[in-house]
Amino acid sequence: MASFLRKLALAVTLGVATTATVPHRIAGWEADSWFEGDAALQDKLAKGLRETTSDDLVERPFRTGSAHFDSEWLFGSYMMAAMGYGQMALALPEREPELVRDMDRCIEGMLKEKSRYYDTSTWGEDPLASLDGERGHVAFLGYMNLVLGLRRVLSPKNPHAALHDRVTAALERRFSHTSGFLETFPGQTFPVDNASAIGSLGLHQRATGTDHTKTILAFRALVNTKARQDDGLLVQITQTDGRHRDVGRGSGTFLGSYFLSFADPELARSLYDAGKRALYTEHVGFGAMREHTEAHPGGDDIDSGPVFLGLGVSSSGFAIGPSRAFGDRETFRGLYALLHLFGLPVDSSGTRTYASGGPIGDAIVLAMLTARPPETLAPPLATASLGSGHDETGNEGGVR
Amino acid sequence: MKKNRRVELFTVLGLVTLYVGAAHVAASEKVANALLAAGDHVPIALLVFMVALVVLRVAVVLVIPGMVAARLGLLLLAWYEGVRAEKVPTRAAPSSPAG
Q1: Which of A44, A141, A184, A216 is deepest in the core (most CB within 10 A)?
Q2: Structural domain tally of chain B?
Q3: Domain range spanning residue B45?
Q4: Is the CB of B36 inside 8 Å of chain A's CB atoms?
Q5: Do B38 and A63 touch (CB under 8 A)?
């Protein structure tokens, strides 16, 4: 009996010690390479996505059960893939021509009628045909314009420059005509979608020199006074005047932080820090973000993705981008290990695909894993500090 | 090699091979795309395949390393006890007074 207990104790000790120290290192062994911007790794994922954005999205459309979400996911796949290609092109200037071609293919995809359907059908008017109007359309225009902005940073004179100017002017005018947020859909206002539009203004300023500082700073004040809950998370749904219709959530906070990194690094950093403080958790080396805090619980929906034991798929995935952008290597490692465990990566014929995510998963992963440090893209804003004591964590900055 | 150790070894190798093979099938057949494209009518076989793939992945990355470490530890202990058992009787054996 004593011999059996001794063997059991040894087996349990070794098993637990190994599980606590080895698996996250296996799953996260490429994390540092991604963090440093390893071109070969980026290329593998980009190649797989090239195939997908060329044919598959048309041949195998999404069927979520809702024509609205089918269209939104199609648009989102092209949009995130384009962001990934654009960020790669900035990091790898020698590869710019081919990556810009990839971006242009995705922009064409975003402009397809099928991709616009979710916005057109909800508003009853086409978002691009109604640029002279005052209605929000920010779920289409903000995201679209972010991609057009990145394209413009890469080449100021490109075939989409005129459209970029028109969409930017429409968004700026709509922001200037309200003291609140722009509507995503009629009667529905998502601050994170507004953040995409503000991010696009930052890129327009960077690319063309047109000053959008006033709008960007007004948005910062609006978010900080109206759309953040007590722990600093970005409220997911509000009314246009900022009154809360939902609680602060990880998916919106981290995606908003990523978008705002193109316009207002200070607000973006503040959102990321608040989100990490409130939501980050690590078990045996695998990091994850909760979707809700305990003090502000809520359910899951299409934006949160699946939520297991409170841990959000979207929240954890979207946090990878700002963790890289703000140089938070430790958190990036933890989140990457989780992505690598459950994403089911498969390398084949020089390409990589995440088998559990489908095209939209690969597109989001490429955009997040190649997110750029804000100082390389966001325009300088003459502004007072938020006073939130950034860089308390000693995170790494610098260009990657 | 004892039979049960051979079974353990081949089980581990089999699980790893099964995972790698299944993951490649999932990627080349674009199973996730098919799952997302299936809407409300997801074929049960497809769903079972994806769940099995995730379970295999967790087993290969999260569970097997700990089990292998525990098994190797026990083998090491058995070897050490064997060596000790061989030495103890030699030391303890009384010498013959007759020389």
Answers
A1: A141
A2: 1
A3: 3-90
A4: yes
A5: yes
